[in-house]
Amino acid sequence: MKKLLASLLSVGMAFAISMSVFAQQSITDASGRIVSLQKTASRVVSLTPAVTETLFAVGAGDQVVGVTEFCNYPAAALSKTKVGGFSGATISVEQIVALKPDLVILSASMHAKLIPLLDQVNIVSFAVEPASFADVYRDIQNLGKLTGHEKEAAAVVTNMKNRIAAVQKLPAPKSSPRVFWELWDDPLMTAGGPTFITEAIALAGGTNVFADLKEQWPQVSFEELLIRKPDWILSGTDHGDRMKLEDILKRPGWATIPAVKNGKVAVIDSDIVYRGGPRLADAVEALAKILKK
C-alpha cells in the first residue's frame, strides 16, 4: 500500500511539475504576440489546411475539434466539424465558440480580423505565417509544444530534413535545370523568390528562373520568359488542365521555349507544394523525380 501511495504521489508531483513548466512557456506567434497557455491545448480549432496537416502529423489529431472546408488531409480531418472556408470572411466565430476550444490556430494575414473577436470571447489564438522551410520547421515545433507533442514534432522535423538531405545526394544533371513555375497563363503569373515553390525547386536541384523577383506571385511578360529560357515548365495540379503540351504548343511563340521544344512540361500535387506543412518534403521529392531524371 505504501508503495502504491508513493507511486501515485510521484506521478502527481511529476504531472504538477510538467504543468508548471508548460505554464511558464510563452511562444511569440507570427503576429508578434506572446501567447501562453495554462495547460496543454486539448481542444484545438485549425483555420488552415497546413496547420491541420501539422497537428495530425505530430500526433494531435484527436485534439482537433474544428477545421475548415479545405482541410482535406489526412482523411481523418474530413470528419471534423467545419467552421467555414479558408478566408477570414467565411469563418464562423459562433461555430468556433460552440466547439469550446482552448486554442485556435490561424493565419496571421488572412485571419487578422478574427484575433480581436476571439479575444473578446476569451479564446486563445496562435497565428502562423510561414514563408520558408525554416519557418515551417519552427511552426511544427511550436504546435507540438502547444499541444503536448514536442518530441513527436521534433521527430517530424528531423524526418523532413533527412528526406530532403537524401534528395540532395541523388545524382543530378551537370547544370541546374532552369524552371518556370506557371501559376496562371492569362495573365502570365509565376512564383517569385519568397515562396515555398522557389525553395523546393532549389532543394530538388533546380533554379526558379524568376527567383530574383521579390513578389510572391508576380505577373510576368512572355518576352521576359523567352529571355530566361527555362528547361522545364512546371505547375500544380490545380492548373493541370492548362498544362497539356499540345495546348501549350498552340500558344503563340511558346514552341521556341526550350522546355516546350523538348516536351519538358509537368505538374505536381498542388497541396504538397503550396501548404507550409510536413508534406513539403513530399514536394521536394516529387520535384527531384522530375528534375533529376
Automatic annotation (TrEMBL):
<dbReference type="Pfam" id="PF01497">
    <property type="entry name" value="Peripla_BP_2"/>
</dbReference>
<dbReference type="GO" id="GO:0071281">
    <property type="term" value="P:cellular response to iron ion"/>
</dbReference>
<dbReference type="InterPro" id="IPR002491">
    <property type="entry name" value="ABC_transptr_periplasmic_BD"/>
</dbReference>
<feature type="domain" description="Fe/B12 periplasmic-binding">
    <location>
        <begin position="43"/>
        <end position="293"/>
    </location>
</feature>
<feature type="signal peptide">
    <location>
        <begin position="1"/>
        <end position="23"/>
    </location>
</feature>
<dbReference type="InterPro" id="IPR050902">
    <property type="entry name" value="ABC_Transporter_SBP"/>
</dbReference>
<dbReference type="InterPro" id="IPR054828">
    <property type="entry name" value="Vit_B12_bind_prot"/>
</dbReference>
<protein>
    <submittedName>
        <fullName>Cobalamin-binding protein</fullName>
    </submittedName>
</protein>
<keyword id="KW-0732">Signal</keyword>
